[in-house]
Amino acid sequence: MVAVVVIGVVGGWAVGKEFSARLEQSAASARASQIERTLKTVAQRVKKTLPEKLNAVTTMIGISYEQKVMTYVYDLDTRGEAPHEVIATLRELVGERACVGEFKDAMHYGYAFTFRYNSPRGAKLGEFTLSAANCA
């Protein structure tokens, strides 16, 4: 009888563990779907407002969402500074902010964010992509 009880308890624990794992997977899947819908909606809504001057040197000119990557495109006047240095500084600043908010949550579920910078004349200055690996 003790062996049956032990087997029942162990079996019940295994079933409970499996049930819990499936619930976690279901919740994660629901959260990933919610993030997907949100990113698509944001891209569609923001695109309608562009171009948008963000400050004296930056104008957002594009946004798109495709295959788990949100891409932001900006015109950036570097005001004579070396573009690679400006982009490196932006990468550091944006990366710090991205790793603490909604971006981090989305990145946890496999989403990434690309930031592309062009000169006001359209020449590519640089870009970088942030993903969960950047927030380790």
Short descriptors:
GMP Synthetase, Chain A, domain 3; alpha+beta; 24% strand; disordered N terminus; 5-stranded mixed sheet; 136 residues
Short summary:
By secondary structure, this protein is of the alpha+beta class. Helix content is about 50%, strand content about 25%. It starts with a helix and ends in a 6-residue tail after the last strand.
Textual characterization of the structure:
- By secondary structure, the protein is of the alpha+beta class.
- It has one domain: 2-Layer Sandwich (GMP Synthetase, Chain A, domain 3).
- 51% of the residues lie in helices and 24% in strands.
- The protein has three helices and five strands; from the N terminus they run H-E-E-E-H-H-E-E.
- It has a five-stranded mixed sheet with strand order 1-2-3-4-5.
- A hairpin with a 2-residue loop joins strand 2 and strand 3 (69-76).
- The longest helix has 46 residues, at 2-47.
- The radius of gyration is 22 Å and the shape is globular.
Largest sheet: 5 strands, mixed
Adjacency order of strands in the biggest sheet: 1-2-3-4-5
Q: Which structural class do the helices and strands define?
A: alpha+beta
- Give the CA-based shape: globular
CATH class: Alpha Beta
Averaged pLDDT, please? 83
Q: Taking Cα atoms only, what radius of gyration do you get, to the nearest Å?
A: 22 Å
Helical stretch tally = 3
Can you write the helix and strand succession as a string?
A: HEEEHHEE
**Helical content class:** 40-55%
Query: Could you list the spans in which at least 5 consecutive residues all have pLDDT below 50?
Result: 1-23
Number of strands: 5
What is the name of the CATH architecture?
A: 2-Layer Sandwich
Provide the β-strand percentage band: 15-25%
Span between N and C termini? 50 Å
**What fold name stands as the CATH topology?**
GMP Synthetase, Chain A, domain 3
- Write down the domain tally: 1
